[in-house]
Amino acid sequence: MKSTEALQEPLAAGRDAVARRAWPEAYEALRPAYASGGLDADHLELFGKAAWWVGRPAEATEAWERAYGKHVERGEKLRAALVAITLRRQYGAKLAKSVAQGWLNRAERLLEGEPESIAHGYVAIANGSLAWQRGELGHALSHLESAAATAERLDDAKLRSWASMYRGMVLVDLGRVDEGWALLEDVSAAAVGNEL
């Protein structure tokens, strides 16, 4: 494992590249420290994001799993829950439904008794998405409206956009097309306008 001092320059370069969304550069800067086991939980999350965006989903998943473990070890429930939600999405995309549900269950357990946070909103979105996939549109909308309310209370633009995107799609499926499209167009404008 490299010394802490030797890691500082590539870690700083990796953080800077992630901030600029220069994913190949971030991946290359962080990869040696990742391979040596020298990344803390925060940098493991960054490496996971960079690996994802350069088309290395297996490395991304492994990095996020390691980050989750480190957050749990440090008692960082909120951060661990957010990583668990990311892992739920990753395994869901691979159609590993049981594993995805296991990660969602972990996130929910971590958040029990905790003050409201954006993680609660993302758990609501995950539950809304699952209900939507089962065709339970009213149930899905209820979860997604809960996520939107959390986003408003916490004034979080990213959570607001995710909740609006899913709400828009569910509203379209419910036949409330104008209302749904308005939400989807608003999210599109926010994304193009770099508001997220």
Counted beta strands:
0
Assess the beta-strand content as a share of residues. under 5%
Given helix and strand content, the structural type is mainly alpha
How far apart are the termini? Answer: 36 Å
Helix content: over 70%
Shape, per Cα inertia axes: globular
The number of helical runs is 10
Mean pLDDT: 93
Rg, nearest Å: 18 Å
Order of helices and strands: HHHHHHHHHH
Q: Note poorly predicted spans.
A: none
User: What kind of sheet is the major sheet?
Assistant: none
Explain the overall architecture.
With about 200 residues, the protein is mostly helical. It has ten helices and no strands. The chain starts with a helix and ends with a helix. The model has no long low-confidence stretch (mean pLDDT about 95).
Could you outline the blueprint of secondary structure elements for this entry?
Elements: H1 4-19, H2 23-36, H3 41-53, H4 57-73, H5 77-93, H6 97-111, H7 118-133, H8 137-154, H9 157-173, H10 177-192
Helix pairs in contact: 1-2, 1-3, 2-3, 3-4, 4-5, 5-6, 5-7, 6-7, 7-8, 7-9, 8-9, 9-10
